[in-house]
């Protein structure tokens, strides 16, 4: 059995972007996180799982400081999520709906990060 804790389509207002005109203002991001718990974790209580409110809090905290690339945002959030409890892997998706001019398309970065401890040894 493996348990996945997910937060899907969390809307954030983030200080994000590499262009000079993106400094000093906020833009929408939509963030999703899937955390797979370690094999022994049963999710019996919050010491044996991850409180999904903490995932939201970490994402909101990262959104408050200016970051250039959405890849960096995803990496920072994945790293923080791996320390929230008995987490084996974190998959983070960051969508920036207004990244391209005229609302032509949104852009998306997906990142998959695993605890070094849980990497295969064979
Ligand atoms: N791979 C990426 N490409 C770009 C990013 C990004 O975060 N990752 N960001 C930008 C700008 O900030 C854009 O959103 C506005 O022009 C461009 N390319």
TrEMBL record:
GO molecular function: dihydroneopterin aldolase activity; isomerase activity
Alphabetic keyword roster: Isomerase, Lyase
Organism: Sphingomonas qilianensis
Domain Dihydroneopterin aldolase/epimerase as annotated: residue spans: 5-113
EC number annotated for this UniProt entry: 4.1.2.25, 5.1.99.8
Listed name of the protein: Dihydroneopterin aldolase
Keyword Lyase among UniProt keywords: yes
Short name of one Pfam family: FolB
Source domain of life: Bacteria
